[in-house]
Write a structure and sequence with these properties.
Elements (H helix, E strand, L loop, with lengths): L6 E15 L3 E8 L3 E7 L18 E7 L6 E9 L2 H4 L2 H17 L7 H17 L7 H15 L8 H5 L4 H9 L2
Antiparallel strand pairs: 1-2, 1-4, 2-3, 4-5
Pfam families: RecO_N (PF11967)
Protein name: DNA repair protein RecO
InterPro entries: DNA_rep/recomb_RecO_N, NA-bd_OB-fold, RecO
């Protein structure tokens, strides 16, 4: 008989969203290099003594192991490879980055691997991290380039706004309007 908690996979992923469940657990929505968008469970990460909590922060690039649970696979041994600390210290860079992760959450279907989406996510977050905290960056212009590339990578027609293309509202666009000038 197989152990219910045997390791099923090692993953590399960007954390795009977290949803609290139960008292101390979270569902962690990731975009993985191997399997596309996935939902995993992180046990006890909301406890003050959790060692995994800081590794599983939104925007982080992480490596982790998975074990099969009764529902969603369970994250174990999470290790942050890149916390994008420059992004997190610059409100304009953070606003543009939140658009990217909201896009991945709202538009990308679960379980569909797409190398071009992984490259887009990885390249854009790395670029934004390089630009963060620099005074000579015109964030409105950078956002427009990222938006146009996102529409293209997702296969929508040029000239459309992402909200028109997917018929959904994006809260991050309001944040961008307020802080990116």
């Amino acid at each position: 008989m197989k152990d219910i908690y045997s390791i099923i996979n090692t993953m590399r992923a960007f954390i795009i969203k977290k949803i609290p469940i139960r008292e101390y657990d979270e569902l962690v929505i990731c975009y993985t290099q191997e399997d596309g968008k996935q939902v995993y469970q992180a046990k006890s990460v909301l406890r003050s003594t959790s060692k995994q909590a800081s590794h599983l922060d939104i925007l982080n690039l992480v490596d982790f192991n998975l074990v099969q649970g009764n529902g969603h696979p369970i994250i174990t041994s999470a290790y942050c490879l890149n916390a994008f600390s420059k992004i997190k210290s610059d409100i304009k860079a953070l606003a543009v980055s939140f658009f990217i992760v909201e896009l991945m959450d709202k538009v990308v279907m679960e379980g569909e691997r797409d190398g071009s989406l992984w490259d887009f996510l990885s390249n854009k977050l790395n670029d934004i991290n390089l630009f963060a905290n620099k005074k000579d960056i015109f964030w409105q212009k950078e956002f427009k380039k990222i938006h146009a590339e996102a529409v293209n990578v997702l296969g929508y027609g040029k000239g459309l706004s992402i909200e028109e293309a997917v018929e959904r509202r994006f809260g991050s666009l309001q944040l961008i309007q307020n802080v990116v000038r």
